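Supplementary Note 3. Input sequence used for the single-chain structure prediction.
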Amino acid sequence: MRFPAVLFTCTCAGFLSAAPLDVEPEDVKPGLLAEYRSLVDPAAKLARVEVKPAFTLGLSSPHPRLPPGPFEVTWTGLVLLRDPGPVAFDAFVGGDITLEIDGAIVLQGQGKSEHAKVVGKPAQRANGYYRLTLRYRSLPDVPARLQVWWQAPSFTREPLPAWRLSHLVSEYPVAAKLEERITRGKTVAGRLGCARCHASAFPSVAETPPGPSLADLKGRVTRDWLLRWLENPSQVHADARMPALFAPDRAGFVERWIVAEFLTGDVSRPEPAGSHREGMKQFQSLGCVACHFIPDIPRTQQPDLDRIALRGLGDRMNAETLTAFLANPHGRYPDGRMPRQPVTPIQARDIAAYLLLWSPSLKLDPLPAPSADEIEAVKKRLQSKNPATALMLEKRCSACHVGVGATIPADVPVKNWDDGCFGGKTLPRFTLAAKEDLQAFAKIAAGEKHPSPFAARQQQLERAGCVRCHARDTDRPSGLEFASSTLGGAYLQYIPFQKTPRLTNPHQRFTRSHLASAVREGVAGLRAERYTFRMPAFGHDAETLVLALAEADGELPAATDPPQPTPLDPTAASLVGPQLIGFGGYSCVSCHLWKGQKLAESDPGNQGTDLTRVAGRLRRDWFDAYLEDPARFHPGTPMPSIFMKGKPARLTSVLDGDALRQRDALWHYFALGKNAPSPKPPAPLPVLVPLGSVVVAQIPMHLPGGELLESLTLLNASDDLLIYDLGA
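The predicted structure, written as discrete structure tokens, is reproduced below.
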């Protein structure tokens, strides 16, 4: 149920007359410095960098280290103003808010519900960087929410862009540096499964088992490889997350032998049936390079981007099991860190062939078996007739792996954070580069004991890796776009130009139903066939991920989309719509698809989505604002401004050049979908041939039956046309 918004108007002083700060690009970094403090427990504090001041918390705590109840947060940093005219700020806020720009209050008020809106007065300022301070205080029994907006004569009201916010590197506080280390350590604790053995020491790390399923190990891994892996995983794979569980002496070898003999069996490694050449193209074109290094290119020649190297695949999987894994990654890794890509069985087979070509199995000399007396000694120590099961129970294998019994976390007390698993003297023994980060988190982890559904969902969103493929709250390209920009070659010539949709304020852009469906099931048929990136399907996790996006942007998760407006002129859509988007109008179909087809060949970096898929996908209010200035929503987009705010339409011959009526006609024309009348194709251009000359062109011709004919065409000054079928 929606409640009427409460309006609070602040009495604001105008901006001061001081000049903007003299700041060089290297002096600043993205994000504001945020300092949280509980009003229930003043000792509970938190300092960190946040990309923007926004959240929807309800009555939840913003962080597991802060107890439930009222809290306050102060953001400080810089805001970049570079738009002409006075700027006005407002905010949806449940709580108290005060926003200062260079010492002048531009927004102040209180909202007593999550629907309340606080409005400031316009203030003039020259372009440049200015100090920003935003103070927020939650109220008892009032759902906490904050979402800051701004507007000016040159642009329509919009959420305050995160890429306009930054902080001075020289002012980065020690507390924020420590928090950055603690955050990295928490990520490491989740990856290593620390809470699987030390549950009470890591109350906020509620990760699923991080290890792969051992259910099908007999058909994948040889005994000799597993023996070496169990001895020291980090020596076999530098990025291994598993610790050494066995002593490096003879007794440890015997124990490893018993476990390896129990878990492994006959392994068949036939030649992959797929095409490694096709697999290479699929691996690079689907978007796998967002998370993984390309195996046949040296790592030194690839940007890091926190990607994972695919080493040792041939020792862990054969072509059949790797193909099955690519089709259903969750069957092997229940933690969901590998999303389910929409690959066909043939594509999965080809990718498996490509990866195994560059990661073959090692040729290992067999190790001699331990004696019967050595095995008997282990049985006696364990007091078990089944030493393999007893050893796996002793080593707590089921804490991190499914497929070997119930996965029940243990609660082993921690005596010394500076030693233990990372000291190198006891077992289990981790080899870890980020040891100091993990220790920093471990020392405060027990204090993260307060329930924070908001923080838990943000952690799941981060683990899903959405920002690897999609830019969010930044004016820079995504990791996938950056990695793909360095690729190319035969059949991959369009890869460097492909872009992915941005995740900045997605609830402002997409309808709720489309966003949920896209995350749950993926998206197909929206772009041209040559667009190869594919959206994974996140299935039952989609609801949580979409909710996390809303909460981090200050959106109301339970809100509904605005109702569709009535057309200003019911006849305008079908009458003038084709003219507006056609080649004699704004030429939208020069770059965008129409009913799944390209009506013109555009630059590789300019290919747009299908215009007949607008209805049900985009929100009308976002559509109107986007047409005014696309670069505000998607920095670097080739899409031009169609209707400049406050100015007449550029196409004066349609609807009297009324921008409002033209924009309304466009929306309702697109809303007709596949039933919309199509625009006319571009008029043919006459080719004039000088007397005595011949024009020669190699032209692909589409025949009436749909067949494509590659032709060589000759035209002379007498209009004689000769067409040669090059294929024949």
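The two ends are 69 Å apart (CA to CA). Residues 1-13 have pLDDT under 50 and may be disordered.
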